[in-house]
Write a structure and sequence with these properties.
The structure is a single chain. By secondary structure, the protein is an all-alpha fold. It has a domain of 150 residues: MetI-like (MetI-like fold), CATH 1.10.3720.10. The protein contains nine helices and no strands. Helix 2 packs across helix 5. The chain is elongated and about 80 Å long.
């Protein structure tokens, strides 16, 4: 059993008997709490990356539906976006887990990826739609004058520029999705936040496990912000050449 009872705590090493060092030892070392946090962090990354891929893919399809000339496609995409953006994310997660995909044969991890991907799609759809509409119409008209059909015009002229236009907002969506996965604990999925809370329940100490989880989230967000910002600057340099 992972957790140790308070009455069965082993003796800390010399010099670690009290204060913050004792709390760190008790929460992260004595009961392998660091390993619990690492496993929760790995699951958080899986849900984030899986949800992002699903959200971008489905969101792109929704964006094409939103700008379609067929009214039924526009209505369906608008209805979906309205429902998803108008209801709490945690409620959507619970509906996916306990109503739509409530089966012991479906892994909770997969359900979590689907739930967050479906939620993210409603936001990435608007991001892509804005990026597409931001492309100068003169460029598409120039493509038509060169004999490009609608499909090639979209693939060769519109989409490359739309993706560049959408990248800053997609970066923010990625970071938001990473933080929102902390809601997985509501459906008994042991992500990073739930792992920290499980340590707190066992050790009766909140400071070290919760602050440790917060520092992990903060570190990842800082790294992501730096990496995505560097990518955006490279793309801008490419445009200026």
């Amino acid at each position: 059993m992972w957790a140790i009872l308070a009455s069965q705590r082993p003796t800390p090493p010399s010099g670690w008997e009290e204060g913050l060092l004792y709390d760190i030892w008790l929460n992260l070392i004595a009961n392998n709490g660091w390993q619990r946090l690492l496993e929760g962090f790995a699951l958080t990354l899986q849900v984030t990356l899986g949800g992002l891929v699903l959200g971008i893919t489905f969101g792109f399809v929704l964006a094409l539906m939103r700008i379609s000339r067929l009214p039924p496609l526009r209505w369906l995409s608008t209805l979906y976006i309205t429902v998803v953006r108008g209801t709490p994310t945690v409620l959507q997660l619970m509906i996916w887990v306990f109503v739509i995909l409530n089966s012991p044969d479906i892994p909770r991890l997969l359900v979590g990826i689907i739930a967050f991907g479906a939620n993210s799609a409603a936001y990435t759809c608007e991001i892509f739609r804005g990026g597409i509409l931001a492309v100068d119409k003169g460029q598409t008209e120039a493509g038509r004058s060169l004999g490009l059909g609608s499909g090639k015009n979209m693939r060769l002229i519109v989409l490359p520029q739309a993706i560049k236009n959408s990248l800053p907002s997609l970066s923010n969506e990625f970071i938001t999705l990473f933080k929102e996965t902390s809601l997985l604990g509501f459906v008994a999925i042991t992500d990073l936040t739930r792992a920290a809370n499980q340590i707190r329940v066992v050790t009766f100490n909140a400071f070290v496990p919760l602050i440790s989880a917060a520092l992990i989230y903060l570190t990842v967000v800082i790294i992501l912000t730096w990496a995505l910002g560097k990518l955006e600057r490279r793309l801008r340099k490419g445009d200026s050449r």
